[in-house]
Amino acid sequence: MLGMSTTTGHGHGHTHDGINWAERLGHLQAIDALDRDTHADVAQRLAAGLPEGATVVDIGSGAGGMSSAFGRALAAAGGGTVVLVDAVPALLDAATAHVRAEAPAVEVVSVLADAADPALPELVPAGDLVWASGVVHHLPDQQRGVNTLARMVRPGGRLALREGGLATQCLPWDVGIGTPGLQGRLLAARESWFERMRADMPDVVRLPGGWGRALAAAGLGDVTSLGFLVDHPAPASAPARESVVNWLTFMADMAGEWLSEEDRATVARLIDPHDSAFVGNSDDVFVLSASTVHHGTRPVPPA
After folding, report:
1. Based on the number of CB atoms within 10 Å of its own CB, is 186 exposed (0-12), middle (13-18) or buried (19 or more)?
2. CA distance 45 to 239
3. What is the sign of the dihedral through the CA atoms of 99, 102, 104 and 107?
4. What are the two backbone dihedrals, phi and then psi, of residue 46, each rounded to the nearest 5 degrees?
5. Closest Cα partner for 157 from 168, 166, 149?
6. Which residues form the Methyltransferase type domain (predicted)?
7. Looking only at Cα atoms, what is the longest distance across the chain?
8. Residue 291 — left, alpha, or beta (φ > 0 → left; ψ -120 to 50 → alpha)?
9. Which of 28, 54, 140, 148 supports an S-S bond with 50, CB 3.0-4.6 Å?
């Protein structure tokens, strides 16, 4: 029945990176609202050519921004099914509600499951398009994860991974307090966090090479990529400034131990709404990033 939502699987809310994503739901929703137009563009490009009544599977659906964009794209083409998969119940519930509100003409299926579960293809309906945004790099064995996702694609369908690109830039070189160049040091701290996050994962396996090679190794053909830009220039809108505050808060929580005491104090002032340096009131912050979507097609077996 169109618009109905079902939940299956055996999710447990665990994620492999140690991040409490349920606590970040509000931040994820704010990002989705800010990037709504970008999501729509990516969804339309990837959904072009899908069969009538197609099924799109969103692995690690988060707050549901891309799931909703896929739902709107399917609705515009006559309907279909959006399958949301996440290991965090609070995110899955919020994303399901979001898609149902945004695209009531499509069927919505929600599955509580871990993206690293090798049984995922048995828990989740097969998709004409399987989408995973910033998910696979959080899995201990990334190639195994790609292989599992490729098994979830119907013959002739596509697997699309949003991975890599250019990191978010949002601050002028000199923010007026602390030592100039804070943005670069924040990104370097994030890299240090990421290295340790992956090193500390049980049973972690390296993935040498790029994502296109991983898709090809999973048996997919016609492997290629597309890029898209998120650009909210200064003077930034209120939602963009809020996004900068959220980004800085997340960076401080995640990678603060790799920052100097001075930089930690600077960030604390930048995200304090009662401080004169609060970036939420700044007219010279911005949001600029670029992401890459790598995708390949599952071959159709010979007749």
Report:
1. buried
2. 26
3. negative
4. -80, -30
5. 149
6. 57-160
7. 69
8. beta
9. 54
> Tokens 């989408």, residue?
131
Q: What's the CA gap between 189 and 22, in Å, rounded?
A: 23
DSSP 282: -
Cβ count within 10 A of residue 107: 21
Q: Both tokens of residue 104?
A: 């009531």
Q: Which residue has the tokens 């939940």?
A: 7
Q: For 130, phi and psi rounded to 5 degrees?
A: -110, 125
Q: For residue 187, report the phi and psi dihedrals to the nearest 5 degrees.
A: -65, -35
Domain boundaries, the chain: 5-297
Mean pLDDT of 247-273: 94
How far is residue 275's CA from residue 302's CA, in Å, rounded to a whole number? 66
The number of residues in the chain equals: 303
Helices (H) and strands (E) in the chain, counts: 10, 8
Summarize pLDDT for 103-129 with one digit per residue, the tens. 999 999 999 999 989 899 999 999 999
SS3 114: coil
* pLDDT tens readout for residues 7-26: 334 344 445 556 677 887 88
Average pLDDT over residues 68-77: 97
Q: What is the pLDDT of residues 202-216, one digit of tens each?
A: 999 999 999 999 999
Q: Are 152 and 127 in contact (CB under 8 A)?
A: yes
Percent composition of the chain: helix, strand, coil (DSSP 3-state, to 5): 40, 25, 35
